[in-house]
Amino acid sequence: MNTHKIISGFFFILAMTLNFGFVYGDPTIIEQHSAYELFFTIIVNLIATILKLGDKTQLGAVLLATSLVADLQLLASAAVWAVALYGVQKFTVTTSVTIVSLAGGAFLANLVSVILFIGDTLKSKR
Hints:
mainly alpha
């Protein structure tokens, strides 16, 4: 077994499932979406991005791109939430939907990453 593949796969899948857990629920009701879960999703996504940095293959470049997209969208989601809580803007339904939508885009990027990772794993020789 390849220990690096196991650790990488663990973080890729954990990032996707945490992201799904945050997005799941009614996007208009922010109480159904935990700020702690968004925070942990961002941390795990950043770890997954770091794990993707060493791969110099074409697939590695695509995996890194998907991870960077997810990171950007999750950080934007957290920024919108922070501005809504502590900034000038009030927390509205539109703000809630924006937060969840950005995290939903990150979920799709994570899903693509996991599908590519699984495809590469199935393709590789034993």
